UniProtKB/TrEMBL annotation:
It holds the Pfam family B12-binding. The keyword Lipid biosynthesis does not apply. SUPFAM superfamilies: Cobalamin (vitamin B12)-binding domain, Cobalamin (vitamin B12)-dependent enzymes. Its cofactor is adenosylcob(III)alamin. Heterodimer of an alpha and a beta chain. Residues 535-664 form the B12-binding domain. The keyword Transferase does not apply. Signal peptide: none annotated. The lineage of its organism: Bacteria, Bacillati, Actinomycetota, Actinomycetes, Micromonosporales. This is (R)-ethylmalonyl-CoA mutase.
């Protein structure tokens, strides 16, 4: 009997999803070489990771860029960098995803210009600009402008691509970071769809797109989601996403064509769910998380990128990324998954799960819309507070052992791992010379331009920004004139202003029944009495451009619950600002959080600043993804304690902070 003719099989295998690895570091040339190697290994699309200065609209020689250049992605400061990034890669034949948000218009302008220089027809170019700014205010922190101005940029990009780049996905509504910031499946679906509604309303209300073409806009809206290890629930979440998207686009925007209403999404599975302890367990986590977005044919991802097993340790090496690519290839080409129709059709269990998420997400969506939409929900702090509280609850369950994390809070006995025996060599190392080279390069680029053309292009950009004119034409003029990333963003900062999002701490709930917190609270109060102060004061600082603030916020919440007075000014601070706050607020301890890998530059800058301000006695602790060798270097520089992801018990960390204060002040115990 022909095996392909077995009952229930599809007449033809389903087409595999686009397979990507999220890649970029050091320089455009180094990243180009990495792209070429990955494509040769069978990768079928590109996913570009940009460094933090590029994501936040700064050039490599800006003060805030110090220590961050080329570290978590590739620096792209001007057209020359974009040319080098895609040198020898035919963009007309490549599906390219760019994880870029606040300056998405700028990077799309650079990309389109390079594609045209290659001879590509823009109408043939396929890919995605993430271009979802809302989640940046809530979780990742790479926003620049206020929400309303940012949505205007998003709408302008959508209107431009509708006419010039019809195969391009101009926005990728991103629930990925919402989950990492604490969102439950219900919150993830509800909040992401609230963002999608805001984007579509902005396009509709801009007057740039005729009503009859809203279906074409909806057809190019894609989503980028997270998949956690509870993969059955994740399957239900994706089916719920599709059902609600179909409902919203049909009823709110009158889209009749079911193909245009289809929920189109790509996925990166949960990086923050990976553990530093027993990191070999991350392999099975990644595989299970991939199943959540591939098992259900009717809700299968269009594109998948998987993290590497060692992302909780540092920057993955090419071999680590290759391993994650091979996981996808084994599932797609060795297994029989793609040979069958939807495996959950008619499942009572799945239907019940989906209905529960749909009902809860609809309530969340309606709540946000009643507030006036997602912008109002961001500005009032409602969304951020909800995520901080939800993540605090999740952390409490892990600490209590209710939620098991293998190797972290259960089954912690382990043999030495051969995967990490190489120490620092187990992760990619970024050469410190990269930043100096990028700084020299951008200055050389500026020196070689037509200054008058640059000034004219920036003047046009500022003038157009003060009106309702679509900003894409002015941006393209800036690209061709040789304007830099920092100059483009700086011009718009002058018009739109710069924004600082709510921290979400005010509305975050405490831990309630944590039995150990009472003893720590007493130590805090006793230490304050011994020092003759009303309360111990903790400054939580986020130096540099690292916007991943989840850990810092959870420390702040738990410290406040333990009786500390917490000073937290949010993300993206210079060393000078942190030092000034520490001195002015007369704090007892400075806690720095750095997850971008820039700790060896950012932390010494704060230590030096405190010494210069006459407060070299003030103890400093650091938390982040910090290799053991770097932790030794930080301690040698004067850091009192170094905490990494393996230190998951927050109350224990707060207790240790009290010990640090007592040691610094010569108090016993």
């Amino acid at each position: 009997m022909d095996e392909k003719a077995l009952p229930g099989r599809l007449p033809e295998r389903d087409r595999p999803w686009v397979m990507r690895t999220y890649a970029g570091h050091s320089s455009a040339a180094a990243t180009n070489a990495l792209f070429r190697r990955n494509l040769a290994k069978g990768q079928t699309g590109l996913s570009v990771a940009f460094d933090l200065p590029t994501q936040t609209g700064y050039d490599p020689d800006h003060e805030l860029a110090s220590g961050e250049v080329g570290r978590v992605g590739v620096p792209v400061a001007h057209l020359g960098d974009m040319r080098a990034l895609f040198d020898g890669i035919p963009l007309a034949e490549m599906n390219t995803s760019m994880t870029i948000n606040a300056p998405a218009m700028w990077l799309l302008g650079l990309y389109g210009t390079v594609a045209a220089e290659q001879g590509a027809e823009l109408s043939r170019c396929a890919g995605t600009t993430q271009n979802d700014i809302i989640k940046e205010y809530l979780s990742r922190g790479t926003y620049i402008f206020p929400p309303a101005a940012s949505l205007r940029l998003t709408a302008d990009v959508i209107a431009y691509t509708l006419g010039e780049m019809p195969k391009w996905n101009p926005v990728n509504i991103c629930s990925y970071h919402l989950q990492e910031a604490g969102a439950t499946p219900v919150q993830e679906v509800g909040f992401a769809l609230a963002t999608a509604v805001a984007v579509l309303d902005a396009v509709r209300d801009s007057g740039q797109v005729p009503a009859e073409r809203m279906g074409d806009v909806v057809a190019r809206i894609s989503f980028f989601v997270n998949a956690g290890v509870r993969f059955v629930e994740e399957i239900a979440k994706m089916r719920a996403f599709g059902a609600l998207w179909d409902e919203i686009t049909r009823e709110r925007y009158g889209v009749e064509n079911p193909k245009q209403r289809r929920f189109r999404y790509g996925v990166q599975v949960n990086s923050l769910g990976l553990t530093e302890a027993q990191p070999e367990n991350n392999i099975q986590r990644i595989v299970l998380e991939m199943l959540g977005v591939t098992f259900s044919r009717d809700a299968r991802a269009r594109a998948v990128q998987l993290p590497a097993w060692n992302e909780a340790l540092g920057l993955p090496r090419p071999w680590d990324q290759q391993w994650s690519l091979r996981m996808q290839q084994v599932l797609a080409y060795e297994s029989d998954l793609l040979e069958y129709p939807d495996l959950f059709e008619g499942s009572k269990v799945m239907t019940t799960l989906v209905d529960g998420i749909v009902t809860g997400a609809r309530i969340e969506l309606e709540k946000v819309l009643e507030m006036g939409g997602v912008v109002a929900a961001v500005e009032t702090g409602y969304l951020k507070s909800a995520l901080v509280a939800s993540l605090a609850d999740r952390r409490r369950r892990i600490e209590a052992g209710t939620d098991v994390v293998v190797g972290v809070n259960r089954f912690t006995e382990t043999e030495p791992s051969p995967l990490t025996a190489a120490g620092a060599e187990a992760v990619e190392q970024v050469d410190p010379a990269v930043e100096a080279a990028a700084t020299a390069s951008v200055r050389e680029w500026r020196a070689g331009r037509d200054a008058a053309a640059v000034d004219a292009a920036l003047a046009r950009l500022r003038a157009d920004a003060a009106t309702t004119t679509n900003l894409m034409p002015a941006t393209l003029e800036c690209v061709r004139a040789g304007v830099t990333t920092g100059e483009w963003a700086g011009a718009l900062r002058q018009v739109f202003g710069e924004y600082r999002a709510p921290t979400g701490l005010a509305g975050a709930a405490g831990v309630g029944g944590d039995a150990t917190l009472g003893a720590v609270r007493e130590r805090v109060a006793a230490t304050a009495r011994e020092l003759g102060s009303g309360r111990l004061r903790l400054l939580v600082g986020k130096p540099g451009l690292d916007g991943h603030s989840n850990g810092a916020e959870q420390i702040a919440v738990r410290a406040r619950d333990a009786g500390f007075e917490v000073v937290y000014q949010g993300i993206r601070l210079t060393a000078g600002q942190i030092v000034a706050a520490a001195v002015e607020e007369d704090v007892d301890l400075v806690g720095l959080s750095v997850l971008s890998g820039s700790h060896l530059a950012a932390v010494p800058a704060v230590l030096d600043g405190l010494r210069a301000a006459g407060r070299g006695d003030l103890p400093v602790v650091v938390g982040g993804i910090i290799p053991a060798g770097d932790a030794d270097a930080l301690r040698a520089a004067g850091v009192a304690r170094v905490f990494t992801p393996k230190d998951f018990a927050l109350t224990g960390i707060i207790d240790e902070l009290v010990t640090v204060i007592r040691e610094a002040n010569g108090l016993a115990g």
